[in-house]
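FORM 12-B: Structure-to-Sequence Request
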C-alpha cells in the first residue's frame, strides 16, 4: 500500500486512483488509473482519442517535467480550407463558428488522437504498473454502465448559445453515437440512468491484450483510418503513426516568494504566470476577497493576459512567441500601472457571440514518496463521431483553430492550437506546496489563477480555495457565478463594466487541487463537477 491522495471530478475515477495507491502504485499509476476511468464514465469530457498536458514532479527519481500531448491538425488540413465559411468568433475566444458546424461536429472536426499514447508512455517511464492492468476498472464501467451524474446531465441538455452546435447534437448526429447515448424512444439517458458501452469495453480489452500500438499502427488504427476515409475525415495513417507525446521543461515563475511551475505553450501556463506577475503589484488581501475592487483588478489582469494570448501565443513550432516579455516582472509592472491608472483593456473579437461550455477533465495526485502529478486531458469540444464497433468519441479540436490564414491560431498541418490547460505545481522552496489544475476551456487559466490567489493571498485550504465563488473575464464582460453578491455586481456596473450572471453557483472551470500542510495533504474537489478527493 502507498499512502497518497487523489482529487478529480468523477467519484468513480477517484476511487480507481485510490485503488492503485492501495495496491502499492505511485502517484503516476494513480493518475493514469483515474484518467482511464474518466474516459469511460465521462466520455464527452475526455477519451483515448483526446489530448492533454501531464505535469510530473517525481521526487524519487529527481525529475520534474511535462509530457505534452496536444492535439494536432491532421496532415490533410490547409490554412484556407474554411476561410469562406466563417460566421463569427466565440466571445470567450474558444474557437470559431462556421457554416454547418464543419469544424465542430463530424469528421472534419477531429485532430490527431494523442491521449492513449501519453497514458502508456507515462506508465512505462514513471509508473510501477501497466496500462493493461490499470484499464480493467474502465472496462468494467464501459461494460456494466456509467451512471449519468449531474454534470453529465447538465452538459448533455444545455445549449449555452453563441452559435455553436447544441451539445445534444454531439450525441445524436452520428449513428454509432446514437446507439450508445439515445434510448429507443429517441430521448437521451436521464440523470441517474445507466449507459452501457460494450464496444468501448471490447476496444479496451483489445488494447490491454494487444498493446497501445494496435490503436496507432495495428488493427484498431486501420479501422479508424478506414472510417475517416469513408466519411471525408482529415486524419491519415501517418498522423496516427506520428502521434507521440513531447517532453518539455516546466515554465517557471515566482509569486510572493513561492516558485510556480507550469506548462509551456501551446499550453496556458504563460497566462497564469503573466496574471500572477501583474497581481503581485497589488495588496489583494487588503482589497477583500471578491470585493468590487478585487474583481475589477483581477479581471483587468485576466483581460490583459487574454489579449496577449490571442495576439502572441500558439504552437511554438509555428509561432514566434515573446515568452520572455510576457512572463517578465517589468512588463507586469507596466500592466499593473495601467490598471492602477483606471484604464480598461478591450478584448477584440471577430463578430462575437455568446460563451460556450468546454469539455475537459483533470486529476491531481500525490503520494508518500513526494511524487506529484497534475494531469489535464480533454476532447476539447467532442466531435460527436464514434467509429463503428470502437465505442469511443473523437475530439472536435479543429473548432478552436482560426480559419483565417495568417493569424497566430491559423490552421496548418501538424500544428497544435492554443489550449488553456495549465496543470501547475507551486513550491515552497524545493518542496511542492499546491498542486492544481482544471477543466473548462478558456476558463481554465482563470479558475486556476483564483485557486492560487485563494490559497496564497487568503490562506484558504484546498477545498475552500476551489469552492470559493469565481468570476471570469476573457472578453469585455465580467462573468460571475450566482454566489457573487448582487451588491458587488451593481458596483461593478456603476464603474462601467458589463456584468453577466451565471445561474450556476459553481462555474468557470472545475478546479481540483491538493495543498501540503504540516499535517500532510488536504484535497479540494469542485462540487460543480461532482468532484471528490480521497486520501489513503
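FORM 12-B RESPONSE
SEQUENCE OUT:
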Amino acid at each position: 500500500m502507498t499512502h497518497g491522495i487523489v482529487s478529480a471530478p468523477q467519484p468513480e475515477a477517484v476511487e480507481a486512483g485510490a485503488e492503485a495507491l492501495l495496491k502499492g502504485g505511485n502517484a503516476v499509476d494513480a493518475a493514469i488509473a483515474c484518467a482511464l476511468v474518466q474516459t469511460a464514465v465521462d466520455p464527452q469530457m475526455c477519451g483515448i482519442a483526446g489530448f492533454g498536458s501531464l505535469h510530473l514532479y517525481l521526487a524519487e527519481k529527481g525529475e520534474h517535467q511535462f509530457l505534452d500531448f496536444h492535439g494536432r491538425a491532421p496532415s490533410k488540413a490547409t490554412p484556407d480550407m474554411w476561410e469562406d465559411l466563417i460566421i463569427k468568433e466565440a466571445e470567450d475566444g474558444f474557437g470559431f463558428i462556421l457554416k454547418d458546424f464543419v469544424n465542430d461536429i463530424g469528421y472534419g472536426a477531429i485532430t490527431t488522437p494523442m491521449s492513449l499514447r501519453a497514458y502508456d508512455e507515462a506508465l512505462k517511464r514513471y509508473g510501477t504498473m501497466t496500462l493493461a492492468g490499470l484499464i480493467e476498472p474502465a472496462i468494467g464501467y464501459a461494460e456494466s454502465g456509467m451512471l449519468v451524474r449531474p454534470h453529465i446531465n447538465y452538459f448533455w441538455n444545455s445549449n449555452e448559445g453563441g452559435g455553436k452546435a447544441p451539445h445534444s447534437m454531439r450525441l445524436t448526429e452520428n449513428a454509432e453515437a446514437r446507439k450508445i447515448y439515445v434510448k429507443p424512444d429517441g430521448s437521451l439517458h436521464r440523470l441517474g440512468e445507466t449507459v452501457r458501452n460494450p464496444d468501448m469495453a471490447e476496444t479496451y480489452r483489445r488494447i490491454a491484450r494487444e498493446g497501445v500500438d494496435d490503436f496507432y499502427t495495428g488493427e484498431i488504427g486501420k479501422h479508424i483510418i478506414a472510417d475517416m476515409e469513408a466519411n471525408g475525415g482529415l486524419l491519415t495513417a501517418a498522423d496516427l503513426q506520428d502521434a507521440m507525446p513531447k517532453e518539455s521543461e516546466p515554465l517557471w515563475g515566482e509569486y510572493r516568494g513561492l516558485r510556480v511551475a507550469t506548462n509551456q505553450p501551446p499550453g496556458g501556463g504563460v497566462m497564469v504566470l503573466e496574471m500572477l506577475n501583474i497581481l503581485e503589484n497589488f495588496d489583494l488581501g487588503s482589497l477583500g476577497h471578491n470585493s468590487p475592487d478585487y474583481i475589477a483588478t483581477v479581471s483587468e489582469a485576466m483581460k490583459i493576459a487574454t489579449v496577449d494570448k490571442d495576439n502572441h501565443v500558439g504552437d511554438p513550432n509555428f509561432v514566434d512567441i515573446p515568452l520572455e516579455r510576457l512572463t517578465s516582472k517589468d512588463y507586469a509592472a507596466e500592466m499593473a500601472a495601467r490598471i492602477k491608472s483606471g484604464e480598461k483593456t478591450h478584448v477584440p473579437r471577430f463578430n462575437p457571440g455568446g460563451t460556450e461550455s468546454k469539455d475537459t477533465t483533470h486529476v491531481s495526485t500525490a503520494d508518500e514518496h513526494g511524487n506529484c502529478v497534475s494531469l489535464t486531458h480533454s476532447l476539447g469540444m467532442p466531435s460527436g463521431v464514434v467509429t463503428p464497433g470502437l465505442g469511443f468519441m473523437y475530439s472536435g479540436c479543429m473548432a478552436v483553430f482560426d480559419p483565417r490564414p495568417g493569424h497566430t491560431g491559423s490552421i496548418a498541418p501538424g500544428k497544435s492550437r492554443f489550449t488553456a490547460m495549465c496543470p501547475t505545481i507551486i513550491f515552497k522552496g524545493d518542496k511542492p506546496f499546491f498542486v492544481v489544475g482544471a477543466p473548462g476551456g478558456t476558463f481554465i487559466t482563470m479558475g486556476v489563477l483564483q485557486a492560487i490567489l485563494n490559497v496564497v493571498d487568503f490562506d484558504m485550504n484546498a477545498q475552500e480555495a476551489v469552492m470559493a465563488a469565481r468570476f471570469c473575464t476573457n472578453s469585455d464582460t465580467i462573468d460571475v457565478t450566482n454566489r457573487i453578491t448582487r451588491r458587488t455586481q451593481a458596483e461593478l456596473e456603476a464603474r462601467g463594466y458589463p456584468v453577466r450572471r451565471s445561474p450556476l453557483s459553481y462555474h468557470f472551470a472545475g478546479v481540483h487541487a491538493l495543498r501540503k500542510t504540516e499535517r500532510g495533504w488536504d484535497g479540494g474537489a469542485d462540487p460543480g463537477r461532482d468532484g471528490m478527493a480521497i486520501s489513503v
